[in-house]
# Entry
Amino acid sequence: MSSGKTACESGRVSHIFWSDGDGTLIGVIRTTSGDLKFKGFMPSVFIGNFITLHGEWFEHKKFGKQIDVRWYEFPKAEEVDAEQLKVSDSCKFLFEELALGKRGQHIFQKYKGESRKVLTENPYNVVRDVPQVGFKSAQKIADAMQIDPYDERRIDAKLVEILDEAAFDGGHCFILWPHLVEKAAGELELDFEFVEESINRLSQPSVDPFGDEKPAYLTIEEVDGRSLVYPKNLLYSERKAAENLIRLVHATPNPIRIEDDELEYQKSGAGQIKLTEEQKAAIRLAFDNSVCVITGGPGVGKTTIVRRMVALFKQKNLNVDLCAFTGRAARRLGESAEQQAFTIHKLLAFDPRRQKFQRDEKSPIPADVVICDEASMVNIVHGSALLDAVRSGARMVFIGDVDQLPPIGPGALFRDIIRSECIPTIRLQKIFRQAESSLIITGSRSILDRQLPSFGKDTDHDDLFCFTYRNSASGQKVVLDLVCEKLPQLFDILPTEVQVLAPVYKGDLGIDALNECLQERIQGVKPMADVRFMAGDKVIYTENDHDLGVMNGDIGIVTNAQTGGKYIKVEIDGIEYQFDQDQEKKLRLAYAISIHKCQGSEYPAAITIANPGLRPGFYNRNMLYTAMTRGKQVSIIVTPAGNSTLKVIIETDEKRRNSRLVHKLKYALQQESDS
# Structure
């Protein structure tokens, strides 16, 4: 029974030491030859069940010899119920017959004991139903079943994948018909006519694997002789956003008089800040209109505007709700305004069970004023839902930096509203005197003007620096030395207060490798086998958990990882949270994170990996601008030797997103004017 040999053992389950709640178990079966430990994905197995385990023997450093279970069965069928038999049969199908591994677990979580039945009927169902399993895995299942390449289910699934990837990777709300047909036909190696038939088919309602009617997946909008193919929910979101913005434009709020002296100063600490004419104009814009936009880069005083605006609205007896897309951005907003702020999901009372917002046009937000900060992060789906829930007569204020990265997901609501010129907008330009000496501030303006920023040499006065490297290995060393030694010594900060921002996950300068190296360097030791985190590790949560009160993108420090594997404790913004085994899976190391993840946040020090060669065509001017402006005390660019690399990034435009919100806004406003 040496490690790696095939195992097939039968016995009765006597102990289950650990379960992740999703079906993975560690336990013991009692056999005729003695007790045997096992570990594997075994949903519907309970203490007392007689089971046969199929897998491989392996030697665990601490717990000794065990069976790594690949699949299992109930040989004494009379002892278990029908559902347990269906579950074990589905596991055999997924893990033995199809050898899907982790992807099989995701499929099982969706279909449970019906997995064999659902996939046998249509293996391509997983493309629409299981986000973690794409077309490639579905095709593997289909190949095992010898499904014809011309099968309409295969073509439908490929179209779904292309449209989903376009929305969530490219930010596109639609794809032009010819482009979609050409791409799908090329990847499927089929004639155009088969793809065109599939597009028409997906624009009609269908029936899901459980016999329930499923709405049409896509819809086609005809514009100036062109056919735009939208996922149906995105066209709905785009139309509703335009309708609601125009509704708010024409829903005149109750007039409120603001005296000039009320706009002169804003309290700040022990003193006062005198507002500029731009800042006064921005506040008046919010008071005089039912919906407006305030945009500007770092150093122009947006925080002061928010504080004064909220204070004045309260003085006028108006109820104000504050929101931002991420939990971290919401907390920063709340601190600035000295009032609690919510994530958009929280403000709209998101129901995770039904995957719906409870606040909408029928049950709107009761506030008189809704202020959304870091609005550049809001995609068309969430932006449309927010606008839907703002009642007529209330005020809606969007605040953000239009030059930052567009949101994760489809559309660019904030940018499109500004481009439409249909909504009252002010762009703040004046940099405050104390910010004029900041190389971060002046350098960010240079980048937007397609110029190289000026880098500092004096750590006592400057806040923007550039470090170069010869190859990826030396680049990694530069980053490690900066995080662990140079920045803590020069700026009196902790290594965990330095945030590394990288554009990719793989390679020596990728997020994964940097996290692994930084963890070992900062902790002084590597984590033990089967241990992901140690006390003191910097981690990020990767999903919204409304019950726990932790949001996607929240970063904290592990305070206790020695709990026998039952839970882990993490301190986030001064509050200690306890994560159970299932929640712990959604934590990742956060010494290095993606540039998209840093939006809405600031750090004492930020290090940006600036090398377009790591992901050709991905890095652009707005991405560098966003990353560089995340540092409060200091920001550092780490780039290959020579100025050509930064020039390539600065001269690279962000890819335009396919969206029709600008056109829909202009059309709706024109229709209102003509009627």
Remarks:
- The chain has 23 helices and 30 strands.
- The chain has a mean pLDDT of 90.
- Residues 472-491 form the longest helix (20 residues).
- The two ends are 83 Å apart (CA to CA).
